[in-house]
TrEMBL record:
Key words, A-Z: Cytoplasm, Nucleotidyltransferase, RNA-binding, Transferase
Protein name (record): polyribonucleotide nucleotidyltransferase
Coiled coil: none
PROSITE patterns: KH_TYPE_1, S1
């Protein structure tokens, strides 16, 4: 119905009419169950929900619109259970179906199941089958002598007055293959199983007829979601680049989410899920991530080699250094600055912009950060100093011997 919505449908049966819409969001928006519900049902996250609204104007009344009442909760839960079995388990979005009753004269919950099924297919959700529902009523005549049902009539798709004056409201929803949800409101002390079976058979016939009418409008889910719909992509970030991708204190991730509106969640150590509200936002996020994680000169670093580092910042815990211009600054801790124990880098006369020699010990396997040390270079062992600015190398042992010979002269 509406192109700007992720999915929408208007369903009317008799004097009951509902408007159903579908909205997608990231899996981070799924409902988190508490520990008690998780222990009982075994469901941790709920990525499908149906919101049922029954405003006063649906029955030609002017009333105060308040919070959700028990009736709306019950009808919404029934329609949600009717649709839940056909929702794909691996769908990458959280799905919210909203059903607003515009007109009501019986069985608005089953109309919500029908309208919700149409809206899901319009949104491109690959549901396994369309869902329809119908309410079966019952009118009985009792034998006063035997206190049993003498005669009865089953009513298909009952109206409000038939629900009010009748003896049963049996709601049945499902697909062409079976039943997904049912609920029976019975005013009698009990009914024979024969009547229950007849009601189910009568509802199955009506359900198939409704599905045939629905198939004339849309018979299967759309092949693709709408252009203005959200997008989810999975990106691989090597462990060596994770610190650069996240940034100090999560700066890069926060900046990315603020500028593009995307949501990033970590799947495992090297996999991140990126949710974007629109394809254009995903394109911006992809460019941003590519710029952050681009390869500079990291492949040239050799384990055990000595490099010239430039101090970019002095902190109480150490100094921030860079080995090449486009590199993310790395903390060189006070314990790795000198053989002596110091409390602040200024005790060694270090300043911003000063160049120092550091030894490269690979990356930390836990967080992927560079492991550098200046302290190990203060030993008299012969070490080759390499620089990324030019190709010249200096043998530390020779320079020490030359300086000592000059002092002896």
């Amino acid at each position: 119905m509406f192109k700007i919505l992720h999915g929408s449908a208007l369903f009317q049966r008799g004097q009951t009419q509902v408007l159903c819409t579908v909205t997608f969001d990231s899996l981070e928006s799924s409902i988190k169950s508490d520990r008690v519900i998780t222990a009982i049902n075994g469901i941790k996250d709920k990525n499908f929900m149906l919101h049922y609204e029954f405003p006063p104007y649906a029955t030609n009344e002017i009333g105060k619109v308040t919070g959700v009442n028990r009736r709306e909760l019950g009808h919404g839960a029934l329609a949600e259970k009717a649709l839940y079995p056909v929702i794909p388990k691996d769908f990458p979005f959280t799905i919210r179906v909203t059903s607003e009753v515009l007109e009501s004269n019986g069985s608005s919950s089953m109309a919500s199941a029908c309208g919700g099924s149409l809206a899901l297919m319009d949104a491109g959700v690959p549901i396994s089958s369309a869902v329809a529902g119908v309410a079966i009523g019952l009118v009985t005549k009792n034998n006063p002598d035997k206190d049993e049902i003498e005669d009865y009539r089953l009513l298909t798709d009952i109206l409000g007055i038939e629900d009010y004056n009748g003896d049963m409201d049996f709601k049945i929803a499902g697909t062409n293959k079976g039943i997904t949800a049912l609920q029976a409101d019975i005013k009698l002390p009990g009914i024979p199983i024969k009547i229950v079976m007849e009601a189910i058979q009568q509802a199955s016939v009506a359900k198939k007829e409704i599905l045939q009418i629905m198939n004339k409008t849309i018979s299967k889910p759309r092949a693709s979601r709408k252009e203005n719909g959200p997008v989810v992509e999975t990106i691989q970030v090597p462990l060596s680049k994770r610190a650069k991708f996240v940034g100090p204190g999560g700066y890069h991730l926060k900046k990315l989410q603020a500028e593009t509106g995307v949501t990033i969640s970590q799947v495992d150590e090297e996999t991140f899920s990126v949710f974007a509200p629109t394809p254009s936002a995903m394109h911006e996020a992809r460019d941003f991530i590519t710029e952050i994680c681009r390869d500079d000169q990291e492949h040239q670093l050799e384990f055990g080699a000595v490099y010239t580092a430039t101090i970019t910042e002095i902190r109480d815990t150490g100094v921030m250094v860079k080995l090449y211009p486009n590199m993310t600054a790395v903390l060189l801790h006070n314990t790795q600055l000198d053989q002596r124990k110091i409390k602040h880098p200024t005790a060694l006369g270090l300043e911003v912009g000063q160049e120092i020699q550091v030894k490269y010990f690979g990356r930390d396997p836990a967080d992927g950060r560079m492991r550098l040390s200046r302290k190990v270079l203060q030993s008299p062992a012969t070490t080759v100093v390499k620089t990324l600015n030019d190709r010249s190398s200096i043998v530390m042992g020779e320079s020490v011997s030359q300086s000592s010979s000059n002092s002896s002269q």
